[in-house]
Specification:
single chain, alpha/beta, Rossmann fold, 2 domains, 44% helix, 16% strand, binds S-adenosylmethionine
Length: 282
């Protein structure tokens, strides 16, 4: 879940930076502006300013380049992302606990699609659906018999997701399960369900419980993979300053996973970090 890095106000519809790269790009752009305006001190010199500009361009260019080099999103995903941007998150029913920056987006959606193709997943579990972007992306990658079970606790965003999913080609493959995800997981286990790919993207304090439930309730199929979002949490787990509660939760989760003999994992520095986990204890 994204948390404000500063009190800067962003115009309606404009996403604020919520990933380590985007935050670093914003800070470098500020430094360049200050240096150009001469407010950082007079002795900096043109060479120093040129190096600072190069750092800004290196960092600021990564995300747009990833977007350009990645297969474009489908018209349905574009429409869902546009609709999500147009919602009034500041004063509407989601105000205070939901925001447009929660949506994973184009490049991460395409990575999830690629993982579904690579693993030949048929049954997918999503923990934290929001307005349905990643659920729809994964549904688009599934074959005709594939299914995404999407867990969500908030009726307001689930309503938006249902609307967008029913207007899309692949949305019929998503089945929305309302309620606290841990309860939904327990019900799925009682029904003997198993999943080839699990995407965890809900409350950060719940991550450890979700991974444990998936492993202990035997919800993962033998070659299944668990993908956990926001494991870089804006850089907070490795920065030497006070983290937010989300930063602390993710740092603790990352430590737990790193020391868990049941699994093998890799943290991919895409967007706000995506950890890929597989079982190695059976
Ligand atoms: C970061 S958003 C998910 C974004 C979505 N995966 C996407 O890519 O667009 C997190 C979502 O998790 C939901 N959530 C939070 N706690 C939950 C819980 N205990 N059970 C189910 N969903 C939960 C929130 O309501 C929110 O919609």
């Amino acid at each position: 879940m994204a948390v404000p890095a500063r009190s800067t106000a962003y115009a309606a519809g404009a996403a604020r930076p919520v990933t380590p790269v985007a935050i670093a790009a914003r800070e470098l752009a500020r430094l360049v502006q200050q240096a150009e305006a001469g407010s950082v001190g007079s002795g900096l010199g043109q060479e120093w300013l040129a190096q600072l500009r190069e750092c800004r361009d290196l960092v600021a260019g990564i995300d747009p380049y990833l977007e350009r080099c990645t297969t474009p999103e489908s018209p349905d995903l574009q429409a869902l992302a546009r609709h999500t941007r147009e919602v009034d998150w500041a004063t509407g029913p989601g105000a205070g606990h939901l925001e447009q920056e929660m949506l994973s987006g184009h490049v991460e959606g395409q990575l999830l699609k690629m993982l579904i193709h690579l693993t030949r997943a048929q049954r997918v579990l999503e923990i934290g659906m929001f307005t349905g972007y990643s659920a729809l992306a994964m549904a688009e990658a599934l074959g005709p018999d594939g299914r995404v079970v999407a867990c969500e606790i908030d009726e307001y965003v689930a309503g938006i997701a249902r609307e967008c999913l029913s207007a899309s080609q692949a949305g019929h493959k998503v089945s929305v399960r309302m309620g606290p995800a841990l309860e939904t997981l327990a019900q799925a286990a009682r029904a003997g369900e198993r999943f080839d790919l699990v995407f965890v993207d809900a409350d950060k304090g719940g991550y450890s419980g979700y991974l444990n439930a998936v492993l202990e309730l035997d919800l993962l199929s033998p070659h299944g993979v668990v993908c956990v979002d926001n494991t870089l949490m804006q850089g907070q787990p490795y920065l030497d300053r006070s983290p937010t509660p989300n930063g602390e939760d993710i740092a603790a989760f990352n430590r737990e996973v790193a020391g868990d003999p049941r699994v093998e994992q890799v943290l991919v520095p895409l967007r706000d970090g995506l950890t890929l986990i597989r079982r190695v204890d059976r």
